[in-house]
Amino acid sequence: MSSIIEIVQLTHIYSPGTPFQVTSLDSISLDIKKGVFFAIIGSTGSGKSTLVRHFNGLLTPTAGKVRVCGIDTADKRQRRNLWRSVGLVFQQPEQQLFEETVFADVAFGPRNMGLTEAEVTERVHEALRLVGLDPLAASRMSPFHLSGGVRRKAAIAGVLALRPQILILDEPTAGLDPQGKRQLMEHVEEFRRREGATIILVTHDMEEVALMAERVAVLNRGRLVMEGSPREIFSRAAELTAIGLDLPAPARLMRQLRLLGKPVRTDVLTVAEAEEEIAVLLGETLC
Amino acid sequence: MDEVFIAVKDLTYIYNRDNAGGYRALSGIDLEVKAGEFLVIAGPNGSGKSTLARLFNAMLKPSGGRVIVAGMDTMIPENVWEIRRRVGMVFQNPDNQIVSSLVEEDAAFGAENLGLPAEEVQKRVAETLRLTGLSQYASHAPHLLSGGQKQKLAIAGVLVMRPSCLVLDEPTSMLDPAGRDELMETLIRLNRTMKVTVVLVTHFMEEAVLADRVVVLSDGRIAISGPPAMVFAEVELLAGIGLKLPAALEIAHGLRKRGFPLPQEILTIYDLLAYFKNKALED
Fold this sequence. Notes:
- The complex is a heterodimer of chains A (about 290) and B (about 280).
- Chain A is α/β, with parallel strands linked by helices and about 290 residues long.
- Helices cover about 40% and strands about 20% of the residues of chain A.
- Chain A has helices at about 50, 75-80, 80-85, 100-110, 115-130, 135-140, 150-160, 180-195, 205-210, 230-235, 235-240, 250-260, 270-285; strands at about 5-15, 20-35, 35-40, 65-70, 70, 85-90, 165-170, 200, 215-220, 225-230.
- In chain A, helix 8 (about 180-195) links the parallel strand 7 (about 165-170) and strand 8 (about 200).
- In chain A, helix 4 runs parallel beside helix 7 (about 150-160) and helix 5 (about 115-130) crosses helix 7 (about 150-160).
- Chain B has helices at about 50-55, 80-85, 105-115, 120-130, 145-160, 175-195, 205-210, 230, 235-240, 245-255, 270-280, and strands at about 5-15, 25-35, 40, 65-70, 70-75, 85-90, 165-170, 195-200, 215-220, 220-225.
- Chain B has about 280 residues and is α/β, with parallel strands linked by helices.
- Chain B is built from 11 helices and 10 strands.
- In chain B, strand 1 and strand 2 (about 25-35) form a beta hairpin.
- In chain B, the strands form 2 sheets. Chain B has a 6-stranded mixed sheet with strand order 6-7-8-3-9-10, sandwiched between helices.
- The interface between A and B is large, with 45 and 45 residues.
């Protein structure tokens, strides 16, 4: 598979040359393949949000190179093409809703792309269905009279309607209830499969990473400290806890059981896998 | 612990009551928060959790029914000042709750507003920073703190007014795993050692299992209320309203379905581990 995002020795310094100078990213090199579900984890202030803002040219490197869809983000003239192919959903995107109806809000992006009204409507319908909202009801709903969860979905639909090749979600499920989290992740996965899109997920939810991601990058204080599959990453428990991260709960349980001397796998990621392992363990002790 | 601190009687809340598009967020809520209790309010998005939390310190007034805080009705304007001093609120986003450019000044803000003498303010600030584990950051700038530390500063800013009760609306939802643990430890410590009543609104079922009691809201009504072991035994009911069991309970529930007789008291990973430890001793 070909790379869609190539990062070489990326350094980003905020307010360089002032007393407030902060090195937010330090010599990061990373390759993200097209069509992959990629998670970025790290404690607060590790540089996750700064990193993803380089993927659509919102920030440009202080040093190093970032190429997205073959475009060097430092190239001002090329950069504007990225705004169509890279969709970025910020933290708490529901605060950015502004139109009178949910439908109009979702339609805002596609309309600015110069599409015909029929194409706009088609895209809005599809995007709303993808996040589980009824397009007909949406043309009557004001975004300001909805619960936080529904507003979040509407805001994400607004980005999906642009049909981005790369969809970046910065903590999209923070503050959603468990069912809302699961649904949103299922919708994102469906979008990825249908459009062949690349998904970049920034999250603090380790269970979400275990369940959804194919590849994971771990940041700490602006440096890339690990990259690999969730199983590889979550097998390095001590290193993760040292930088303020954690294992998914099922993995934590397996590790503790192993410490008690029980012969269980420790590369378990999900509740179902943990249940299977313990069933075998209990089955043996019962017989 | 049987003294009632907040009494909620047949409470209804309707947003935009005067308009045709009025929205009923809460109906027929009866609830008592006991002094010194650690109460969790859980429920899906839009179930009325945040609305209920805001009724506890008179940020919102009931559309019907009553909220009585330490004997004071929140509908009576003369009570509001004292109710807010006794019931402190902490919100989701720590960045929206910090007002000063120094940690100790931020923590002092509430106490200064009470018109206390400078010595008393200093004493209280030192005490609250110690209680929240922030003493070493007293002269730091708040924006350089981690998310968990900022949220603890938000708590310190409230504690300095010596409230009897803290109401927290999803305080951990924007924090990383370490920040979440840190904040929960602080809340439990305040509750156990300082006897502060804690009302925690959360989606994280892992946090709910640590409470004395869990109240689950669904569509503006109380769906179930009781100790965590009792509430989490209602697996189907919880799944029906969109909540998920904590991982340890989900595993235990799955194993029971397969015919393994695991005790109902298992709530956390540590309970599961203790069960295996005891089993090992028996064998």
